[in-house]
Amino acid sequence: MKVIKLQLSSNAILDKKFQATSRGYNPLEVDTFLDTIISDYMVVESNVLALKRDVDNLISKINDLEKQKRVLEVENGRYRTRFANIKESDNVTSDNIEYIKRINALEKFLWEKGYNPKDIK
Fold first, then answer.
1. Which of 60, 74, 75, 107 is the right S-S partner for 117, CB 3.0 to 4.6 Å?
2. Who contacts 9 (Cβ-Cβ below 8 Å, separation ≥6)?
3. C-beta neighbour count of 80 within 10 angstroms
4. Beta carbons within 8 Å of 111's beta carbon, 6+ residues apart
5. Phi-psi label, residue 8: left if phi above 0, alpha if psi -120 to 50, beta otherwise
6. HSE of 102 in the Cβ direction (CA atoms, 13 Å)?
7. How far is 35 from 29, CA to CA, in rounded Å?
8. Which of 18, 11, 19 lies closest to 38 in space, CA to CA?
9. What are 94-108's pLDDT values in tens digits?
10. What pTM was estimated for this model as a whole?
11. Do residues 38 and 10 lie in contact, with contact meaning Cβ atoms separated by under 8 Å?
12. By three-state DSSP, how is residue 71 classified?
């Protein structure tokens, strides 16, 4: 990210003193113009600070999401290993339905005995 470095600040513009000459510009006109520049410069400074905060927040969110992604990739790898032997089939067989009914009955039995089936490894 490129950092924007301003050469002047609004205070530097405000405090700038010019040498008076006999044939110089109208001081009131110069002051009025510089006041306009200062107000614009203050807007630019506040926008730069707001954008820096936004960038910092987005970088923080990116870091959090990258950490979450790594955790999910590890978990995905565990599931892939765990289910690697399961055959992929689009056909629902009566055997599969019977297995599901049997698993459901066993889980109900465990719940009735006070065990959480998800805690059993």
1. 107
2. 41, 45
3. 9
4. 117
5. beta
6. 6
7. 10
8. 11
9. 778 888 899 999 989
10. 0.48
11. yes
12. helix
